[in-house]
Amino acid sequence: MKISLVYDRQYLDDCWRVGGTWSAYQATKLALETMRVEVATRLEDCDFVIFWDCLELAAKYPDYLKEHSRQALVKIGGYFQGDPDLGIPWGMLHAVGAVVMSSPDMVGDAVKRCCARVEWIPDGYDPRIFYPYPANQMGGSIVACCGMDDYRGCGRVLVSGLPVRIVGPMVDRGDAVKVSSAYEGQVPHEAMGDFLRSGYLFLSLVGPSKGFTISRLEAMACGLPMICSDQGWQQLCMGTAKVIPLKRLDADPQFLSKTVAELSLPELRRMRETGLAKAAEFTPDKVGAMWLDLLRSME
Question: Given 3-state DSSP classes, what are the helix, strand and coil percentages for the chain, each rounded to the nearest 5?
């Protein structure tokens, strides 16, 4: 089987090689290759094409879709709940063979707005980059990632007064983070594992967005205990992380620092182990098997 992964090359290469979308793209490519699927970069002579967050399909690939619509899939990473149109041109997706959503809580919205087949396949991670630090290492920093859906969350971290290290590509949308001494700039995808393993606690305080929040999965895979907001895809975090209500956090800026201070070493170790167990559900072979099952059902 031969698959083409098509994405907005200029946008993804220039802007997101350091962000979560690039991580998710690379993880999907690895998952397919793990299943011995040949991944190409051109449309010609492919059994299927997966358009990766490349939503202006009618404008970009009208001839291909006209002749091969049932062989085309669209992968959608996430969107903001506050957007009444969800930021997605649903009308362009009716002709494709399947629409794949990263989070199960997005599937219902897609089914209501799209006539195409809708499936859930989660983003995975690359275990060659994201692997745990030694179990006896419980020192280091508190770390956070500032991305498209969590730059406001990093602003909440700064208000708490906690000593934290922040990296990420989308700080132009978060001035408070951009000028903070805690912000250390962009980190290439290949170096994110080392950054995460330098910490002992990961903070993910995203707001009301729908999406997989891949940085949470990558932190778990690196063995970091996590404090996260009660937003985003909660099934990834329940039972593995310390979940705090966003409303409580916004009402009391010091609530986060109090929560961190109350964490005991046994609790941190428990969060580490449960997080590693949860991350093991999203390895390339398991995510790749989901893609392969979907593609075979479309043959």
Answer: 45, 20, 35
Amino acid, res. 272: R
Q: Please report how the helices 214-221 and 20-34 are oriented relative to each other, as an axis angle in degrees rounded to 10.
A: 60
Give the architecture-level CATH label for domain 141-281: 3-Layer(aba) Sandwich (3.40)
Of residues 54, 69, 40, the one with CA closest to residue 9: 54
Q: What are phi and psi of 221, to 5 degrees?
A: -65, -25
Could you tell me which residue, 176 or 286, shows the higher pLDDT? 286
The distance from CA 271 to its chain's CA centroid, rounded to whole angstroms, is 20
* pTM of the entire predicted model: 0.86
- Per the CB < 8 A criterion, the answer to whether 166 and 192 are in contact is no
Residue pair 236/278 in contact by the 8 Å Cβ criterion? yes
**Under 8 Å between Cβ of 154 and 144:** yes
* Helices marked H in the chain: 9-15, 20-34, 57-60, 62-68, 107-113, 151-160, 175-178, 192-197, 214-221, 246-251, 255-261, 265-279, 284-297
Give per-residue pLDDT as tens, 126-164: 999 999 977 656 667 888 876 655 556 677 777 777 888
Class of domain 2-124+283-297: alpha beta
